[in-house]
Design goal:
mainly beta; 9-stranded antiparallel beta sheet; 27 strands; single chain
């Protein structure tokens, strides 16, 4: 056998291999490079948060062996933990309607451009019945790593049976309290309307959502601004700027309104406060001289002008309170819409107040 005849099988095998390679389909498309978030530092890589299918998959469940209520829906949210309690915290959400028994499989698409380099993220889930009441909810956020691209399990617990669950509409608003310098402020974020309503010193200010590089910023054309970043923020109100920290304590004005106090006033030098209830002959309570003296009158009468009340204490002391609707500013710089004077015996206390409940 010649050398040429010996080489024939090898040549045939090589030709067959080349033919197979030539027949393979050629792919010309390439994956587009990940676009980094606009506010990401240029020296930090963000490709890791843009990998994968850009969707969170997993299951939400609960331990109780009961079926979901009729017409129940499951809502899953991807949240930015560093923007907690603000509308900006929700990176993505999805709702599954008319869900059957647990576990509930979900797929939550998200936009990787909304993720921040080195950000901290979590997942929450809630099961809402057909009447809009909360049935089950995750009591803690499940940590989520966008670069992991692995399924996530969310455990929910039963909502308290002793108190009615919030409606779907109520869950779209977030009520918080803030200590802004000497000013205690209530802030209710309305995600649907993209506004925040601030309650302060018996007044209410509504601000629309405004552009910001980070955090949640609300501002109006008058220069009022509320800018939060997590549990901290700044408030510019009536030309005064305050550093703010989130707190669990409500404003004394909001707390008084919750007790059906119709009018409240405060003053300094010496420190005093007065509260008047609702009705034609409401009760009056006052604390005078930095709390050293207190007085209560079960029923006071409105004066002829309708801008005040008068009555007598148990020991016969005459008490008169006037509330004139003209601007007033206290020592901390807080602005009120009412100027108040409280006359007790021969002593006069002057301060600022607000009608918390308007009565006709």
């Amino acid at each position: 056998m010649t050398a040429f005849q010996t080489a024939l099988p090898r040549i045939a095998a090589l030709a067959a291999a080349m033919t197979l390679v030539a027949c393979q389909p050629r792919t010309t498309e390439t994956a587009a490079p990940a676009t980094p978030p606009a506010n990401a530092p240029v020296d930090e890589p963000v490709a890791s948060v843009a990998q994968g299918a850009h969707a969170v998959t997993g299951h939400a469940t609960y331990r109780e062996r009961i079926m979901p209520p009729p017409g129940a829906s499951l809502r899953v949210q991807l949240l930015d933990n560093q923007l907690a309690d603000t509308p900006q915290a929700v990176v993505a959400e999805t709702t599954l309607k008319d869900v059957a028994g647990p576990p509930f499989a979900f797929t939550l698409p998200f936009d990787p451009a909304k993720l921040r380099a080195n950000g901290q993220y979590g997942l929450s889930a809630s099961l809402i019945d057909g009447d809009g009441k909360l049935a089950f909810v995750s009591d803690t956020r499940v940590p989520f790593d966008p670069s992991a691209n692995t399924p996530v399990d969310i455990l929910m617990v039963m909502a308290s049976a002793s108190a009615p669950g919030p409606t779907v509409a109520a869950m779209k608003t977030i009520a918080t309290n803030w200590q802004c310098g000497d000013l205690r402020v209530g802030a209710t974020f309305d995600n649907a309307a993209q506004r925040v309503t601030l309650s302060h010193s018996g007044r209410s200010t509504s601000l629309p959502l405004a552009p910001s590089g980070s955090g949640a910023r609300y501002a109006d054309e008058k220069g009022n601004e509320f800018w939060t970043k997590g549990a901290n923020g700044t408030l510019t109100l009536d030309g005064q700027k305050h550093e703010c920290t989130q707190t669990e304590n409500a404003s004394p004005w909001d707390a008084a309104k919750a007790r059906n106090v119709a009018f409240r006033a405060v003053g300094n030098e010496p420190g005093w406060l007065v509260e008047v209830g609702k009705g034609a002959t409401p009760p009056l309570h006052a604390q005078l001289d930095f709390g050293a003296r207190k007085l209560d009158i079960a029923r006071v009468q409105r004066n002829a002008k309708g801008d005040g009340w008068s009555g007598k204490t148990a020991n016969g002391s005459q008490v008169e309170l006037t509330a004139q609707r003209k601007p007033c500013q206290d020592d901390s710089g807080a602005t009120f819409e009412v100027t108040a004077q409280l006359h007790v015996g021969g002593k006069i206390y002057t301060g600022c107040g607000a009608f918390l409940i308007e009565e006709r």
